[in-house]
Amino acid sequence: MCYKPGENITVDEQLFLSKTCCRFFQYVPNKPDKFGIKFWLAIDVNSKYIIKTFPYLGKDHSKSNVLSVGENAAFWLVKPYLKRGRNTTSVESLKENGLSYVRTISRVKREVPNSLKKTKKNYIQRPS
């Protein structure tokens, strides 16, 4: 591997517009480009460089049902960085493998303390 990513990695999916007909062609009604091929991407947050990617080919029935399709994809994408102290914005199961994770939370959930619900400007400050 020639490129060494920073400590923050994000995992996301991207639908690339395509008019090709194939078995893994996707229709996503809430996207601007509704038809295309979905790719899973691991991206270095600081440089915006794509570290690793692969197309979504449908649900893999040979994998265990413990993890969802997204969790399996995220785990595979960040596998080279496990136990190396990286931060990722993906799934909770990665925490057990030496990655910290960051995710969005909804303020309307009961579990969120009132002190966090009353923050200004829609962001939470780190504790000092």
TrEMBL record:
Coiled coil: none annotated. InterPro entries: PGBD. It comes from the Eukaryota. Transmembrane segments: none annotated. Residues 3-119 form the PiggyBac transposable element-derived protein domain. It holds the Pfam family DDE_Tnp_1_7. This is PiggyBac transposable element-derived protein domain-containing protein.
